[in-house]
Design a protein that fits this description.
The protein has about 230 residues and is of the alpha/beta class. The chain has eight helices and eight strands, in the order βαβαβαβαββαβαβαα. About 35% of the residues lie in helices and about 20% in strands.
Amino acid sequence: MRTFRIAPSILSADFARLSQEVSDVIAAGADIIHFDVMDNHYVPNLTMGPMFCEAIRPHSSAPIDVHLMVKPVDALAAAFAKAGADIITFHPEGSEHIDRTLGLIKDAGCKAGLVFNPATPLSYLDHVMDKLDMILIMSVNPGFGGQSFIPHALEKIKLARQRIDAHTAKHGGEIWLEVDGGIKVDNIAQVAAAGADTFVAGSAIYGQKDYKAVIDAMRAELARAQG
Protein backbone atom coordinates (compact mmCIF):
# COMPACT_ATOMS: atom_id res chain seq x y z
CA MET A 1 0.00 0.00 0.00
CA ARG A 2 1.56 3.27 -1.13
CA THR A 3 1.21 6.47 0.88
CA PHE A 4 -0.35 9.17 -1.27
CA ARG A 5 0.55 12.84 -0.91
CA ILE A 6 -1.15 15.90 -2.38
CA ALA A 7 1.06 18.90 -3.11
CA PRO A 8 -0.73 22.12 -4.11
CA SER A 9 1.42 24.36 -6.30
CA ILE A 10 1.51 27.95 -5.12
CA LEU A 11 2.16 29.03 -8.72
CA SER A 12 -1.64 29.13 -9.00
CA ALA A 13 -2.21 30.86 -5.65
CA ASP A 14 -3.10 34.51 -5.08
CA PHE A 15 0.35 36.07 -4.60
CA ALA A 16 -1.16 39.13 -2.92
CA ARG A 17 -2.14 36.91 0.03
CA LEU A 18 0.39 34.12 -0.25
CA SER A 19 0.87 33.30 3.43
CA GLN A 20 -2.90 32.91 3.87
CA GLU A 21 -3.13 30.77 0.72
CA VAL A 22 -0.44 28.44 2.11
CA SER A 23 -2.16 28.21 5.49
CA ASP A 24 -5.53 27.59 3.82
CA VAL A 25 -4.43 24.61 1.71
CA ILE A 26 -2.65 23.04 4.67
CA ALA A 27 -5.83 23.42 6.71
CA ALA A 28 -7.72 21.86 3.80
CA GLY A 29 -5.55 18.75 3.99
CA ALA A 30 -2.51 19.36 1.78
CA ASP A 31 0.54 17.23 2.59
CA ILE A 32 3.22 19.30 0.84
CA ILE A 33 3.61 22.85 -0.48
CA HIS A 34 4.99 22.77 -4.03
CA PHE A 35 7.14 25.68 -5.17
CA ASP A 36 7.66 26.23 -8.92
CA VAL A 37 10.83 28.23 -9.52
CA MET A 38 11.36 29.51 -13.08
CA ASP A 39 14.21 31.67 -14.33
CA ASN A 40 13.10 32.88 -17.81
CA HIS A 41 16.13 31.06 -19.26
CA TYR A 42 15.56 27.33 -18.84
CA VAL A 43 11.81 27.93 -19.17
CA PRO A 44 9.95 30.93 -20.66
CA ASN A 45 8.57 32.30 -17.41
CA LEU A 46 9.86 34.09 -14.31
CA THR A 47 8.37 33.26 -10.92
CA MET A 48 9.85 33.37 -7.42
CA GLY A 49 13.19 33.26 -5.67
CA PRO A 50 14.46 32.08 -2.27
CA MET A 51 13.01 35.08 -0.41
CA PHE A 52 9.50 33.77 -1.16
CA CYS A 53 10.43 30.45 0.42
CA GLU A 54 11.91 32.18 3.45
CA ALA A 55 8.77 34.32 3.79
CA ILE A 56 6.30 31.43 3.74
CA ARG A 57 8.40 29.00 5.80
CA PRO A 58 6.89 30.24 9.12
CA HIS A 59 3.38 29.76 7.67
CA SER A 60 3.88 26.17 6.50
CA SER A 61 3.70 23.21 8.84
CA ALA A 62 3.99 21.04 5.72
CA PRO A 63 7.24 20.24 3.90
CA ILE A 64 8.20 22.71 1.17
CA ASP A 65 8.97 20.98 -2.12
CA VAL A 66 11.01 23.26 -4.42
CA HIS A 67 11.04 22.43 -8.13
CA LEU A 68 13.90 24.30 -9.80
CA MET A 69 13.28 25.02 -13.50
CA VAL A 70 16.55 26.93 -13.75
CA LYS A 71 19.99 26.77 -15.36
CA PRO A 72 22.54 26.74 -13.80
CA VAL A 73 21.12 25.13 -10.70
CA ASP A 74 23.73 24.79 -7.93
CA ALA A 75 23.70 28.32 -6.48
CA LEU A 76 19.90 28.51 -6.34
CA ALA A 77 19.66 25.04 -4.83
CA ALA A 78 21.94 26.16 -2.01
CA ALA A 79 19.95 29.38 -1.55
CA PHE A 80 16.62 27.55 -1.31
CA ALA A 81 18.06 25.07 1.17
CA LYS A 82 19.13 27.99 3.33
CA ALA A 83 15.68 29.58 2.90
CA GLY A 84 13.91 26.58 4.42
CA ALA A 85 13.18 24.11 1.62
CA ASP A 86 12.75 20.47 2.62
CA ILE A 87 12.88 18.87 -0.84
CA ILE A 88 14.72 20.27 -3.87
CA THR A 89 14.34 18.82 -7.36
CA PHE A 90 15.99 19.95 -10.57
CA HIS A 91 16.14 19.05 -14.25
CA PRO A 92 19.21 17.07 -15.36
CA GLU A 93 19.60 19.48 -18.28
CA GLY A 94 20.08 22.29 -15.75
CA SER A 95 23.20 20.80 -14.17
CA GLU A 96 26.67 20.30 -15.62
CA HIS A 97 27.35 17.60 -13.01
CA ILE A 98 24.16 15.86 -11.85
CA ASP A 99 25.83 13.71 -9.19
CA ARG A 100 27.53 16.77 -7.69
CA THR A 101 24.32 18.81 -7.62
CA LEU A 102 22.44 15.99 -5.89
CA GLY A 103 25.27 15.80 -3.35
CA LEU A 104 25.15 19.54 -2.70
CA ILE A 105 21.42 19.36 -1.98
CA LYS A 106 21.79 16.38 0.35
CA ASP A 107 24.75 17.97 2.15
CA ALA A 108 22.57 21.04 2.78
CA GLY A 109 20.12 18.83 4.69
CA CYS A 110 17.41 18.57 2.04
CA LYS A 111 15.92 15.65 0.16
CA ALA A 112 16.98 15.65 -3.49
CA GLY A 113 15.36 14.63 -6.74
CA LEU A 114 15.45 14.75 -10.53
CA VAL A 115 12.73 16.10 -12.82
CA PHE A 116 11.92 14.70 -16.25
CA ASN A 117 10.24 16.72 -18.99
CA PRO A 118 7.93 14.86 -21.40
CA ALA A 119 10.80 14.33 -23.87
CA THR A 120 13.64 13.79 -21.33
CA PRO A 121 14.82 10.15 -21.17
CA LEU A 122 14.85 8.29 -17.86
CA SER A 123 18.39 7.11 -18.64
CA TYR A 124 19.65 10.02 -16.52
CA LEU A 125 18.67 7.84 -13.55
CA ASP A 126 21.12 5.08 -14.42
CA HIS A 127 23.96 6.13 -12.12
CA VAL A 128 22.29 8.25 -9.42
CA MET A 129 19.41 6.23 -7.97
CA ASP A 130 21.30 5.88 -4.69
CA LYS A 131 21.23 9.66 -4.22
CA LEU A 132 17.53 10.22 -4.98
CA ASP A 133 14.65 10.80 -2.60
CA MET A 134 12.23 11.81 -5.35
CA ILE A 135 11.64 11.43 -9.07
CA LEU A 136 9.32 14.03 -10.60
CA ILE A 137 7.65 13.28 -13.92
CA MET A 138 6.35 16.32 -15.78
CA SER A 139 3.03 15.60 -17.49
CA VAL A 140 3.11 19.00 -19.21
CA ASN A 141 5.95 21.00 -20.73
CA PRO A 142 7.27 23.19 -17.89
CA GLY A 143 6.82 26.94 -17.81
CA PHE A 144 3.17 27.72 -17.15
CA GLY A 145 0.33 26.53 -14.94
CA GLY A 146 -3.08 25.46 -16.17
CA GLN A 147 -1.91 23.14 -18.96
CA SER A 148 -3.57 19.84 -19.93
CA PHE A 149 -2.15 16.46 -18.91
CA ILE A 150 -0.09 14.76 -21.64
CA PRO A 151 -1.38 11.14 -21.78
CA HIS A 152 2.00 9.74 -22.85
CA ALA A 153 3.31 10.64 -19.40
CA LEU A 154 1.46 7.61 -18.00
CA GLU A 155 3.91 5.26 -19.71
CA LYS A 156 6.89 7.18 -18.30
CA ILE A 157 5.34 7.05 -14.81
CA LYS A 158 5.04 3.26 -15.13
CA LEU A 159 8.68 2.96 -16.21
CA ALA A 160 9.84 5.20 -13.37
CA ARG A 161 7.85 3.09 -10.89
CA GLN A 162 9.56 -0.06 -12.20
CA ARG A 163 12.97 1.54 -11.67
CA ILE A 164 12.10 2.68 -8.16
CA ASP A 165 10.69 -0.70 -7.13
CA ALA A 166 13.71 -2.57 -8.52
CA HIS A 167 16.13 -0.24 -6.74
CA THR A 168 14.38 -0.25 -3.36
CA ALA A 169 13.88 -4.03 -3.47
CA LYS A 170 17.65 -4.43 -3.86
CA HIS A 171 18.98 -1.56 -1.75
CA GLY A 172 16.12 -0.48 0.54
CA GLY A 173 15.26 3.14 1.19
CA GLU A 174 12.38 5.16 -0.18
CA ILE A 175 12.03 7.20 -3.38
CA TRP A 176 8.86 9.18 -3.96
CA LEU A 177 7.35 9.36 -7.45
CA GLU A 178 5.78 12.75 -8.01
CA VAL A 179 3.78 13.91 -11.04
CA ASP A 180 3.23 17.55 -11.99
CA GLY A 181 1.00 18.96 -14.72
CA GLY A 182 -2.71 18.81 -15.41
CA ILE A 183 -3.55 16.74 -12.31
CA LYS A 184 -7.27 16.94 -11.53
CA VAL A 185 -9.94 15.01 -9.65
CA ASP A 186 -10.93 13.19 -12.84
CA ASN A 187 -7.45 11.82 -13.69
CA ILE A 188 -5.63 11.46 -10.36
CA ALA A 189 -6.71 7.82 -9.92
CA GLN A 190 -5.32 6.93 -13.35
CA VAL A 191 -2.02 8.62 -12.51
CA ALA A 192 -1.88 6.73 -9.20
CA ALA A 193 -2.60 3.44 -10.97
CA ALA A 194 0.42 4.11 -13.21
CA GLY A 195 2.60 4.25 -10.08
CA ALA A 196 2.68 7.82 -8.75
CA ASP A 197 2.41 8.53 -5.03
CA THR A 198 2.78 12.33 -4.88
CA PHE A 199 0.55 14.66 -6.90
CA VAL A 200 1.14 18.32 -7.71
CA ALA A 201 -2.05 20.25 -8.44
CA GLY A 202 -2.15 23.99 -9.06
CA SER A 203 -5.21 25.43 -10.75
CA ALA A 204 -7.23 22.29 -9.94
CA ILE A 205 -7.06 23.35 -6.27
CA TYR A 206 -6.34 27.08 -6.20
CA GLY A 207 -8.80 27.68 -9.04
CA GLN A 208 -11.67 26.50 -6.83
CA LYS A 209 -13.43 28.26 -3.98
CA ASP A 210 -13.43 25.28 -1.61
CA TYR A 211 -9.90 23.86 -1.33
CA LYS A 212 -10.95 21.16 1.14
CA ALA A 213 -13.70 19.87 -1.14
CA VAL A 214 -11.21 19.42 -4.00
CA ILE A 215 -8.55 17.75 -1.83
CA ASP A 216 -11.17 15.47 -0.27
CA ALA A 217 -12.41 14.51 -3.74
CA MET A 218 -8.85 13.75 -4.81
CA ARG A 219 -8.32 11.57 -1.75
CA ALA A 220 -11.55 9.70 -2.48
CA GLU A 221 -10.30 8.97 -6.00
CA LEU A 222 -6.92 7.84 -4.62
CA ALA A 223 -8.63 5.53 -2.14
CA ARG A 224 -10.54 4.01 -5.05
CA ALA A 225 -7.28 3.50 -6.97
CA GLN A 226 -5.68 1.91 -3.91
CA GLY A 227 -8.60 -0.44 -3.42
